[in-house]
Structure formats: structure tokens, C-alpha cells
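request received
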Amino acid sequence: MAELTLFNRTELTMRLVAKLTHEEAVVGGIGNTNFDLFAAGHRPQNFYMLGSMGLAVPIALGVAIAQPERGVIALEGDGSILMSLGCLATIGTVRPRNLTIVIMDNGLYQITGKQVTATGTNTDIVAVARGVGLANSHWVRDHNHFDEMIARRFDEGGPVLLAAKIDDKPGAGQTPRDPALIRNRFMKGLGTGRGGALDG
Amino acid sequence: MNWSDTFLDVLKKNDVRLISYVPDNVLTPLIKGVTADNYFISVNATREDEAMGIVAGAWMGGMKGAVMMQTSGFAVAPNALASLLVPFQIPAILVISERGTLGEFNIGQVAVAKIMRPILDTLSVEHHTLTDEAKLGFIVDSSIKQAVTTQSPVAFILSPLLTGGNPVAHAKLSA
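response:
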């Protein structure tokens, strides 16, 4: 692996969210990943996962299948994607052109006490992704490279996987722990909610 | 029509287009029917909880979906039920081929056959065991409509009385 910039998750998430101009759906994985998505500023098209560790990428795949015209982004941590490596193989089969996966890799289960994950020792997520047929998978080298990789339409050109080495800082926010509210607002943001019956 | 055609027909009538599955011999006619029909979008998932995640995302994106799995595979998925489908109120349709009873050779299926319904009951997930093709249409159609209206997952357990059971098990038991 070439020399990689060590990013900060909060900063990188804000950098990504700032580039979203087409109501892209963003699914934030459990823990720090969705805390930082929330901290970057709530958007109606954000889904914050509470529990179901490892399922951010499958949930994003489902959204991508149901709404093929919308760009969909899954944000996931290294511990979570290690729990669900099989879903990368599924995406290698389905090949949704509107799905982008961003892996925030600090090599740690940061939130449970910084225990080392397999990406901290022996596992290269980009190599895994390429191995299941996701050829458009890249380690993000530095800020310019990240900006270059996200200066694109998210509704085409996928599937893409970007992995960034990040520091061991916790997330900057705290998502409201209200699943029904989160689902309701997300569906409203995607235009699929029951919508206007109560609040227009 | 045979039971699998009837089942798929009810899914279609209820706009259930996405089928994510981990296979089983008993499910073979359903999976063949799904993959042969352009109406359906089928996704062969690597795990049952992954399939539940895919169907949850699709529901929020406006597409109804079902997860098909075998009995032992159900035991992979309680966390996805308890922390995703139930609290987020996702009306996923779960289709479980009932293994582990009425002529099973695999002890791993037998254990899960015993815990499957108690787990669904504990999570307050409505479930119906389908034994009779004549009643299948009414049960599945009305239960899908109830799941969507009440925003709750629903499970259909396909009994060997309906499906004839696992042909591989029959062969092993009678060998």
C-alpha cells in the first residue's frame, strides 16, 4: 500500500456531505459512522442505523435497487464491514451502477474500547473488494484524491468502493435513538413516505 | 397451479417485486419461478440477515420485498429482526421452508425448528404455518396486506404438509 493520509472521520464525512447536491441517499452504519453523518448536518435522505451491525451496505443496496435513478452511498466502519464481507460479494454480482461504498478504516473497534480489528493487522478491504469483482475499489491517498473520487455523479459509474485510513477519534455527534422517526424521515426524503397526512 | 406458483402469484398481486434469498431444496420451485419471471428482481444473498437488510432498504426506497430462507438459516437473523425490521417497522415478508420436522436427517435443522416460532412470538412478529394450498392464497394475501398496513414484518413457514418436504431428506431416510 502506498503512503496514505490518515484522515479524520468527522472531517471526511463533512467533506463528502458537502458534495451531495442531487438528494443522494446516505446510509450510515452503526456507531461512530452514523454519529458523524448526523454531526455533518442532518439531511432528509440520511438513514442512521441503530443496531444490526454490518447491514449498512445491504440496506444501501436495497435502496439502490428500489430507486435506480438515485445515487446511494453507504458509510461503514472496518469492524462492521468485516462482519459482512459476504455483502461485498453480493454487490459484485448485482453490480448496481448507483451504489458507492465508503469504508472508514481505523483498524479498531473504536467504540468498544479500541480493540484491534483484522484490518489493523492483516486485511486489506480494497483487496477484498477487488477480489469479489468490485474493480472500481480504491484506497484514498489524500484530500485531493478524495475530492477527485467524489467529484462525480453518484447515480452512475458504480459500484464504487472507497476506503480511507482514519484516526482513532470518536464520532462528533449523537444520533437521536428513535428508529420510527429515522425511518419516517428517511422515507419522506426519498419520496416514499406516507407523507402529507399529518405534517404536509 | 401448484403451491409455489400460487405463492408467487400472491406476491405479484401485492407488488412484492424484490426477492432476496439463501437457498434450500424446498425453496427451489419458488426460486426457479422468481428467476424465470422478469417481474421479480432476485438477489442471491450470502446470509439471511444480509437479505433482510437488502429488503429493508428496498422497502424504504418504495419497493416491497421478501426474504426466503431455510429453517437453520433463520437462526442467523434474529439480530436483524430485533434491531432493524421490528424497531424500524419494516414490513418485510419472511418465507421460511420448514425443515427439522416430519422426516429430517439434519440435526442442525431440528434444533432451529424448535426455537423458530418462540423467537418470532417473543419479537411479536406475526407468523403463519402454511400447510394447505387451498388456504395459502387467503393467508398470504391477507397477511401481506396486514403487514404493510401495520408496518410490521410477517413470516410464512412452509410446512412439509404443503411442500412435500425436502426431497434429499426423503432419499436419505429411505436409503
